[in-house]
Design a protein that fits this description.
It is built from 4 helices and 2 strands, in the order ααααββ. It is mostly helical. Strands 1-2 form a two-stranded antiparallel sheet. A hairpin with a 2-residue loop joins strand 1 and strand 2.
Length: 140
């Protein structure tokens, strides 16, 4: 559990730097790719069905890959790609855990509402739903 916490903490710092560097080096093609990924993600979030999570997860990976490439740093891209893979693996392993996420229908920004300590739901009318995690207090 501490390893996962450390990965999230380090990754959040490195991704902030990556985003800053990407703003300095991003190409028009990469911007178009990111916009396409965001539009497809919003589309899939509106769909109902079992494949939704898999498609959104795949698009999340593509979004991060483009962002990492846009940083124009092979080292940063490599390190963050490894962190991203580790996080995906940890998420996949935790999917079956009891009480991983508790749904609170009717809460602001539902689906999901309040996910417990460290979690905050967002979104709203016309906005895609999202969950933010404060790594310091959120369970994996």
């Amino acid at each position: 559990q501490k390893d996962v916490y450390d990965i999230y903490k380090i990754r959040s710092m490195l991704e902030g730097m990556c985003a800053r560097w990407a703003t300095e080096h991003i190409t028009e093609r990469q911007i178009e790719e990111l916009e396409e990924v965001l539009l497809l993600s919003e589309f899939h979030l509106q769909k109902k069905g079992g494949e939704q999570a898999e498609q959104v997860t795949e698009l999340d990976g593509k979004f991060h890959k483009v962002l990492y490439e846009a940083s124009n740093s092979r080292i940063l891209e490599h390190v963050l790609s490894d962190f991203h893979k580790y996080v995906q693996m940890a998420r996949a392993m935790s999917v079956g855990e009891k009480n991983r996420a508790v749904r609170n229908p009717g809460a602001p920004g539902d689906p999901g509402g309040d996910q417990g300590p460290g979690w905050r739901a967002g979104g709203g009318a016309g906005q895609p739903a999202y969950f933010e995690c404060n790594e310091e207090s959120a369970p994996v």
